[in-house]
Design a protein that fits this description.
With 145 residues, the protein is mostly helical. It contains six helices and no strands. The protein is flat.
């Protein structure tokens, strides 16, 4: 996973604290609690500061961190896209477009699979050629010695 996955909403000049906060938010509430416990274990004022920050920012007693609510919103939007709109012409167009996109996705996945198989085969053929070349070189060496 890259850092862009959880820092995309941060400005380019975000400090270490903002990046750390975004990283912990991305990992979830358990990461905040683990950071707090580790803070208490290694240097108790750090753990106390993290506890105060979690309470002050309402991370301690909320149902979840920001990422879980964004994930839930994404599911809700996906479900809303599948519901009929009430306009039969649009619903038919949407169903046709979704069917076409699914077929294109399946064709693309099959293309990628064929591409992977061709790459694997070429790598294996190269390995076998190298192995044969080494065996011939060893045989020639043993005959010359």
């Amino acid at each position: 996973m890259t850092t862009a996955a959880y820092t995309s909403h941060l400005p380019a000049n975000a400090g270490w604290f903002a990046r750390a906060e975004a990283w912990l938010d991305h990992k979830g509430k358990g990461a905040w609690i683990a950071a707090m416990v580790l803070g208490f274990v290694f240097f108790w004022p750090v753990g106390l500061a993290l506890l105060a920050y979690m309470i002050w920012s309402k991370r301690m007693f909320s149902k979840s961190c920001r990422t879980a609510s964004r994930h839930h919103e994404g599911r809700k939007a996906a479900w809303a896209a599948m519901k009929p709109s009430g306009n039969s012409a649009f619903d038919a167009y949407k169903a046709d477009t979704l069917r076409r996109l699914e077929a294109e996705q399946e064709a693309f996945e099959q293309f990628l699979e064929r591409l992977r198989e061709a790459k694997d085969k070429s790598e294996f053929d190269q390995f076998m050629d190298d192995r044969e070349r080494r065996a011939k070189a060893e045989a020639d060496e043993s005959e010359n010695a």
